[in-house]
Amino acid sequence: MPDTAPPPDLTVRGVAVYKGWLAPAAQAAMVDDLRAAVAAAPLFQPETRFGRKMSVRMTSAGRYGWVSDRRGYRYDARHPSGVAWPPIPASVLAVWDAITGLDRRPDCCLINYYAEGARMGMHQDRDEADFQWPVLSISLGDDALFRIGNLERGGKTESLWLTSGDVLVMGGAARLVHHGIDRLRPGSSGLLTQGGRLNLTLRVVD
Ligand SMILES: O=C(O)CCC(=O)C(=O)O
Ligand SMILES: [Fe+2]
């Protein structure tokens, strides 16, 4: 990232963490923007190639969305219903611009919704064409325990709690670290009327 990037509050294994980057009013405004996006492209519960349902529900905004089904996972220009993905809200792109300082913008915003009990297993984000671009993640709603591993599978890990308004960046040498969400702290935030947690990941796909 250019050296105009603001210094993070902490760095865990190269992952830059900006605690409380979004103030409560900005979080609420972003949730309103996301509600409109989700109305256009409803959340769905993806299935893995092996026919197992993921516990997270998801949708996307931008030119590409991330989908997974019996054919495997990939970026697709359309929602499973056949509609195009809605545009990435300006409020979300503004976070990318302010933190990364890049002149390239993401073309996918994956929107993950975790209800109580949902989790995400350890994985790398590696379906994008060029790993020089970072992945930026925004947390909204309930606290979540984020686990960071290594570039290779397995090995020791470190965990941190992400709270509403936190932003993190996986870039540079940390672009391909394994990561996942172990669990939520249900009811820890009142941001989402239905409870749970929204996570946005901004990606440059191609
Ligand atoms: O929910 C999170 O904080 C992480 C989500 C994630 O790793 C992903 O969508 O690839
Ligand atoms: Fe990921």
Automatic annotation (TrEMBL):
Fe cation binds at residues 123, 125, 179. Binds 1 Fe(2+) ion per subunit. 2-oxoglutarate binds at residues 112-114, 197-203. Substrate binds at residues 66, 73-75, 127, 153. The keyword Oxidoreductase applies. PANTHER family: ALKYLATED DNA REPAIR PROTEIN ALKB-RELATED (PTHR16557), NUCLEIC ACID DIOXYGENASE ALKBH1 (PTHR16557:SF2). This is Alkylated DNA repair protein (DNA oxidative demethylase).
